[in-house]
Design goal:
Strand order of the largest sheet: 7-6-5-8-9
Strand content: 5-15%
Distance between the termini: 63 Å
Number of strands: 11
Low-confidence stretches: none
Structural class: alpha/beta
CATH topology of the largest domain: Rossmann fold
Order of helices and strands: HHHHHHHHHEHEEHEHEHEHEEHEHEHHEH
CATH architecture of the largest domain: 3-Layer(aba) Sandwich
């Protein structure tokens, strides 16, 4: 078979349909066909676009396939999906998408299906999805959000007002989230270096030290990656590691560390001092950690093959522990589209919950008195998050939940904010005000005197303590700068300063 990006994408999709891991399946096919540069990027784009939008693609195609997609040979089915994905989501002209699809039927020795492929695609490419009707909300989520039934039902049950937004959310605006290696560069310098090295776009992320970039191909192919100038780490993952607040000279354990991204950030917080133990249960995954540690030039990390469900005598008592536990992954549907179609089996959920619980108990035994344990998942399943923590606190009443020093304003589900001020809450509000002022950031206290205690309302006769909520807000509220004239750099400066505050 002659190597070409469309054929590689279709071949990988056929293998993916046999329950392979999407990234591994694609990487293997790209290597087999020896694709490089733009061809490799194009094949990858087709592959992931199909996975991300498969539910929608299948619904449209089935309007013109009386017997449905299941009756088709696997290569023909994936040729149809790939071509429609190109025309609908990748700005490929319909004529090109259709013609190349017909050619692929010959490439995959399915010439007898060429007429069907041609006819179905010409109709499918002009289909108006807004005319579609659905039996119920779950079916609507499956089609418009491209999800399997189990995931659609889970979201409909737990997040009825946000389900479709969750399924259609673009993580990091479709860019790749990175973290600069402070041993070699800053976030600002990394942006400049990335653009010079061929990245299509690079800018600072929301999280301090992070960068959002857009690459022609894989970020791992960039020379700056090979030289250890950055590692790939999502914004949320970075926040989880930052919550540990590891300090120089401390003893810190990363219990479920592979492939090592959060370990890198912990080492950064520790200024490469102290002792950082990075662990994983599988030897092959431990190898990934070692590779990451070496590439980033870290010197204070000890990598161990260790089952986090049991206490390893080789691990010392720690000042801080990160438990980024195995989970269902329902919070990263935007990054791993194949998870949209996973089966949510009760037995598997019970196994995960038991594993998470055991890891938390291990961490409790390894943590020094007064230490900090951060529990992290990449799921939005309440059973793995809020309920898991509630059960842990019952088993370990010596632990308490620590709330962030600065609480951000919240937006209720299904609503959009109309803030004319951006008001945060902080128990040490005056100290936060000084912290920001020292960095040249002006703030304001709205209602420094509770409304009911102001002179205009004296006739109401309300004494101190009569309205405790109003009084608590008055004592903790601080309004941050917010106006249309703020530059992106000024916004970032405020974010960085607030994130630096430790209360």
């Amino acid at each position: 078979m002659a190597a070409n990006p469309r054929a590689a994408a279709v071949a990988a999709l056929v293998r993916q349909g046999q329950d392979g891991f999407s990234n591994l399946v694609l990487d293997a096919e790209l290597k087999r066909q020896q694709l490089e540069g733009r061809d490799k990027a194009f094949a990858s784009a087709i592959f992931y676009t199909v996975l991300e939008h498969q539910g929608t693609l299948d619904h449209i195609l089935c309007q013109f396939l009386p017997k449905g997609l299941a009756k088709l040979d696997a290569p023909v089915r994936e040729i149809l999906r790939a071509a429609l994905a190109q025309a609908r989501y990748m700005q490929v002209p319909v004529s090109a998408a259709v013609n190349e699809a017909v050619k692929l039927t010959r490439t995959f020795k399915k010439s007898s299906a060429s007429g069907l492929v041609n006819a179905v695609l010409r109709k499918a490419c002009s289909y108006d999805l807004s005319t579609a009707s659905f039996k119920n909300e779950v079916e609507r989520l499956m089609v418009l959000g491209s999800a399997g039934r189990d995931v659609a039902e889970f979201l409909h049950k737990n997040y009825p007002d946000e389900a479709l937004d969750i399924l259609t959310y673009k993580a990091d605006g479709g860019m790749t989230s990175l973290r600069a290696n402070p041993l070699k560069t800053s976030a600002e310098e990394l942006c400049t270096k990335l653009l010079a090295s061929g990245a299509k776009e690079a800018k600072r992320g929301i999280v301090p030290g992070s960068v959002l970039a857009r690459f022609e191909g894989s970020p791992a192919e960039n020379e700056l990656f090979r030289q250890g100038y950055f590692h790939v780490e999502g914004q949320a993952s970075q926040l989880a590691a930052l919550c540990v607040e590891a300090k120089p000279g401390e003893t810190v354990i990363d219990l479920c560390a592979a492939p090592g991204g959060k370990t890198v950030l912990l080492a950064e917080q520790m200024h490469s001092t102290g002792r950082l133990y990075s662990c994983d249960a599988a030897e092959n995954r431990v190898g990934l950690i070692r590779t990451t540690v070496q590439r980033m030039g870290l010197t204070n990390v000890k990598v161990l093959c260790s089952d986090a469900t049991k206490v390893n005598p080789a691990l010392p008592q720690a000042d801080r522990i990160l438990a980024d536990v195995p989970c269902s992954g329902l919070g990263i549907l935007a990054k791993k589209p194949d998870l949209r179609y996973k089966k949510l089996e009760p037995a598997r959920e019970a196994e995960l919950l038991a594993t998470q619980s055991a890891i938390l108990d291990t961490a409790a035994q390894l943590l020094k008195a007064g230490g900090r344990l951060v529990y992290s998942t990449c799921t939005i399943d309440p059973a793995e998050n809020q309920q898991q923590i509630a059960a842990f606190l019952v088993r370990h009443p010596e632990f308490t939940v620590v709330k962030p020093a600065v609480a951000l304003p919240a937006v209720q589900p299904g609503c959009e904010h109309v803030w004319h001020i951006f008001a945060v809450r902080c128990k040490t509000r005056d100290a936060l005000e000084k912290h920001l002022a020292d960095r040249g950031i002006g703030t304001n206290k709205h209602y420094p005197t509770p409304i009911h205690l102001q002179g205009a309302y004296r006739e109401l006769g309300l004494a101190q303590g009569a309205l405790p909520v109003a009084e608590e807000i008055s004592a903790t509220e601080l309004s941050l700068p917010m106006y249309y004239g703020m530059t992106e750099a000024q916004v970032q400066a405020v974010i960085d300063a607030v994130n630096e505050y430790e209360g």
